[in-house]
Design a protein that fits this description.
single chain; alpha+beta; Nuclear Transport Factor 2, Chain: A; 2 domains; 6 helices; globular; DUF4348 domain-containing protein; signal; DUF4348
């Protein structure tokens, strides 16, 4: 019986609280609009709103599902061939099943000794340069921003 009375009291208080709304004094009637997304505000603003690359790269490095959603498969990359003379860049296609999740998170213990990472952003293109210290590791990962969202486009692996 106590539970039933408590429930009825809760319903009654809720009804009273919802119907006892007042306009702020001295101001015109206020209208509240629910905005589901930035597209509801202005479609032009939505098209120009874009992700910050550093924030994107952090998320890309830590969330494998997100990473896979931001790579278009098959992914075409370039890497040095194993030719006996002058090595040439050869195009290689990578299917999603052959793709390995990448981590671009900064690790000071590694970065200071064996690998450097440099990020260059030029408009809608960002390049993450990975270099081996005193090694022949040399890879550039190219990201492009399309419709405000960054995606991994390709990479060039020129490591010997």
């Amino acid at each position: 019986m106590f539970l039933k009375n408590s429930f009825v009291l809760l319903i009654a208080l809720s009804a009273i609280a919802c119907t006892d709304k007042k306009d702020p004094s001295g101001s015109p009637q206020t209208a509240i609009t629910v905005i589901d997304s930035i597209r509801d505000i202005d479609p032009e603003v939505a098209l120009t709103a874009s992700e910050d690359f550093t924030t994107f790269l952090d998320h890309f490095s830590t969330d494998s599902v997100f990473q896979l959603s931001r790579v278009t498969f098959p992914l075409t990359i370039k890497q040095l061939g194993d030719g006996p003379e002058e090595p040439e860049l050869a195009s290689v296609s990578i299917a999603q099943k052959d793709y390995h999740i990448m981590d671009f998170a900064h690790n000071p213990a590694v970065a200071d000794k064996t690998i450097t990472q440099n990020i260059k952003i030029n408009g809608d293109t960002a390049v993450v340069e990975i270099r081996g210290v005193e090694t022949d590791f040399y890879t550039d990962f190219i990201f492009v921003r399309h419709a405000g969202k960054w995606r991994l486009k390709t990479w060039n692996d020129m490591s010997l």
